[in-house]
Amino acid sequence: MSNQNNQILKNTNAQILDEFNASIMFDKELYAQDIKGSIAHSAMLCEQGILTKDEQEAIEKGLLQVKNEIESGEFKFSLVYEDIHMAVESRLTEIIGEPGKRLHTARSRNDQVATDFRLYVQEKSLSIKSQLKELVETFVNVASKHTKTLIPGMTHLQHAQPLNFGYHMLAYANMFKRDYERFESSYERNNYSPLGSAALAGTPHNINRDSTCEKLGFKAPTAHAMDTVSDRDFALEILFNISTSMMHISRIAEELITWSSYEFQFVRMSDEYATTSSIMPQKKNPDVPELLRGKTGRVYGNLISLFTVMKGLPLAYNKDTQEDKEGVFDSVKTIEISISILNEVIKTMIVNVDKMESACKIGHLSATDLADFLVQKKGMPFRTAYYITKDVVTCANSLNKDISELSIDEIRSANDELKEIDDEIVMYLDLRNSMNARTSFGGTSTQQTEIQIENFKKWLENN
Ligand code: ARG
């Protein structure tokens, strides 16, 4: 091989290696946290007499200039600097000279990246939390309009018992409220400052970790330097929290897809959220909820991916850990857009009350009420009542009626035990009465649903 060719090969290899090693193309997302962390660090170094006031002022001013350059698009992100931390420091030194080289005193990129990334995760936990609150509010608002709208409640996707649609919506309000609480508790658990852990063992410099902790808004400094630079639990937690919320989003998306199908027609989604088919001109496809459901896959992938990266790492920092960020950025972006889109879909969907209510007349939804009546009023053992009710269902089927449509004579004819049953049973089999009979705590009756809505309203006010 000629010398020239050899040189080209070497350059190419170097370039590939730089690209392989670098994280700047994605960790530039952390520029604001990096600069915030560096300002806090320099201020603390100054308080401790490690930097002079002039040096600190130059550093702070320079860092703010770098921030401006990044935000205005002037900043050149280059692979030469490997990651955002090196890039910011190098540009700072270019601008202010000598004091820039003192910024990294008593700090390592290991505690720096742990700090920046944790700041990012903490900020996102709060913003996702507030998006979730809006989503809860949307479900509660829809619920409060439909506490009397009947919908068939299902198990195994088979008609089971009548519910009101508001109650069904509140199931999702509960899920997203738990998600909110999950982000909140992770935020609290991880609200500790890594800065000052240095490379892995702390530092001989006379630093003050409480001071940087306070400047960065954490509750206290982390307790163990080596644990801190190795730990990515906080990133796993946000990935888990996002996965759980996406799982909930995916379930409502699935219901919306079913409910908007021709066979159900329970809801109609605004045309903005549907697309046409390229071949079948008559079609309207629920692409948006399908994507909400589909994007859940990548979010789960990001969680499993980081779990796998972390599982065999010896203490302390290893470069593998650089693989922690892209998945988190991707999951955060995915959940942010997914929550805001779902919020709009739910706000704008049109509920087809007539279709929901007429669907309740299929499948003998109030059959359990007959069994319950026999238990409550006749003292019958539940299992006996169950078999008697089965006969009434058979009778209704043979008459091509729903159990709620049977006359008292038809009910009496279904089983000898029912020969003398009181006419009030007809009332018990009425679908709306059946829904309203479920007054147990957490049940579906309109009265219980309204209590649940009130509780949600209080929660929304206090959070
Ligand atoms: N870019 C690295 C990361 O994201 C920063 C930490 C590098 N530390 C080191 N000793 N190489 O993890």
From TrEMBL:
**What are the entry keywords?**
Amino-acid biosynthesis, Arginine biosynthesis, Cytoplasm, Lyase
InterPro entries per record: Arg_succ_lyase_C, Argininosuccinate_lyase, Fumarase/histidase_N, Fumarate_lyase_fam, Fumarate_lyase_N, L-Aspartase-like
Recorded GO CC terms: cytosol
Domain Fumarate lyase N-terminal as annotated: residue spans: 12-301
| Main subcellular location of this protein, as a coarse class | cytoplasm
Catalytic activity, reaction form = 2-(N(omega)-L-arginino)succinate = fumarate + L-arginine
Instruction: Extract the GO molecular function terms from the UniProt entry.
Output: argininosuccinate lyase activity
Highest taxon in the source lineage: Bacteria
- Residues of the Argininosuccinate lyase C-terminal domain: 365-436
Keyword Lyase set for record: yes
Q: Which GO terms describe its biological process?
A: L-arginine biosynthetic process via ornithine
What's the top EC group for this one? lyase
Q: Which Pfam families match?
A: ASL_C2, Lyase_1
Q: Where in the cell is it found?
A: Cytoplasm
- What CDD domains does the record point to? Argininosuccinate_lyase
Q: Tell me the pathway.
A: Amino-acid biosynthesis; L-arginine biosynthesis; L-arginine from L-ornithine and carbamoyl phosphate: step 3/3
Q: What is its EC number?
A: 4.3.2.1
Q: Which HAMAP family match?
A: Arg_succ_lyase (MF_00006)
Query: What protein family does this chain belong to?
Result: Belongs to the lyase 1 family. Argininosuccinate lyase subfamily.
Q: What is this protein called?
A: Argininosuccinate lyase
> Which species does this protein come from?
Halarcobacter bivalviorum
- Lineage from the top down? Bacteria, Pseudomonadati, Campylobacterota, Epsilonproteobacteria, Campylobacterales
